[in-house]
Structures are given as C-alpha cells and as structure tokens.
Amino acid sequence: MKNKKEVVLWPKVKVMKKFHQRLIGMMNEQQPAPDKAFWFPFCKSIHTWGMKEPIDVVALDKENTIIEVRRFVCPNEIARFKGAHGLLEMASGSFWPVEKWVGKKLKFIKKHGERNESKPYDCSIVIELT
Fold first, then answer.
1. DSSP state of 25
2. Cα separation of 90 and 88, whole Å?
3. Which of 6, 16, 35, 47 lies 20 to 30 Å (CA to CA) from residue 108?
4. Which residue in 55, 99, 50 sits closest to 74, CA to CA?
5. 84 vs 59, 121, 130, CA distance in Å?
6. Cβ of 7: how many Cβ atoms within 10 Å?
7. Could you write out the DSSP letters of every residue in 55-107?
8. CA-based angle 37:41:42, to the nearest 5?
9. Which of 123, 127, 129, 128 is nearest to 37 (CA)?
10. 43-54 pLDDT tens trace
11. What is the DSSP letter of 32?
12. What is the reported pTM?
C-alpha cells in the first residue's frame, strides 16, 4: 500500500461569499503572498479589472476536484471556466505544480476563529498526495 501524505497548499484562505467581496476579490491586496488564496464558491468566471498584477486561477468541480489551471491571468481580463463550480485565485507564479494535479481533490479545513495579521481567514486548503 502506498503512503499518502496531506500537504497544505494555502494555509490562509478567505471565502468570498458576499457580493462586494466577490466584486473586489484580490484587488485590495497590495502584494499577494504565496500562502494566501481566495475561494469563490459557486463561481464559473472571474474578472481582473483594476488589478495591477496577474494572478493564477484554479477551477474546481462540485467535489472540489481540480479541473483546470490558468497561470498569469493578466489585469483587465475576463476568464471563464467551463464546468467549474468554484474558483481559487492566488498570486501568480505559485511554486506548487498545480497543473500536474488536475483530477485530484482538494480538502478545505475550516479555521475556528483563527486570526493572522489582523485579518480573519476562513480555512486552509490541503491536497492528498501519494
């Protein structure tokens, strides 16, 4: 039997549920950190209007399985993801080889009121690797 290992990909994840959160997304991030991600549940497309830097986007299906990865989505673009049920946005150039993990399921681990840098984060995201 193969050993399975859970790896934390993004320890600081903000769930974007409210309209204003979804509209603004990462725009207020001065310099997005590689350990942060923004999760847009029930979302199939994003815009990067007003952003200063490109971002990476990971599309998930209903089971939170990675179905597509787009690197360096430039400012002032619209990106649509067929079959997506949720999207993750993060700083561009992530060192994780997410493209190789298309078809793997992500697990969201809820944080219980944990605070970091005076901002609340809702969860962290892990992947199980063999």
1. T
2. 7
3. 47
4. 55
5. 6, 23, 25
6. 10
7. EEEEEE-TT-BEEEEEEEEPTT-EEE-TT-SEEEEEETT-SS-GGGGTTPBEE
8. 150
9. 123
10. 999 999 888 889
11. -
12. 0.87
Pair of tokens at residue 72: 């360096």
Q: What are phi and psi of 5, to 5 degrees?
A: -135, 130
Q: Residue 16, class by beta-carbon neighbours within 10 Å (0-12 exposed, 13-18 middle, 19+ buried)?
A: buried
The neighbour count for residue 78, using CB atoms within 10 Å, is: 10
Instruction: Give the span between the Cα atoms of 48 and 110, in whole angstroms.
Output: 27
**Annotated domain spans of the chain:** 5-129
- What does CATH list as the number for 5-129? 2.60.120
Residues comprising the chain, all counted: 130
The tokens for 24 are 């603004």
Query: Which residue(s) pair with 91 in the sheet?
Result: 55
What are the pLDDT digits (tens) for 66-106? 999 999 999 999 999 999 999 999 999 888 999 999 999 99
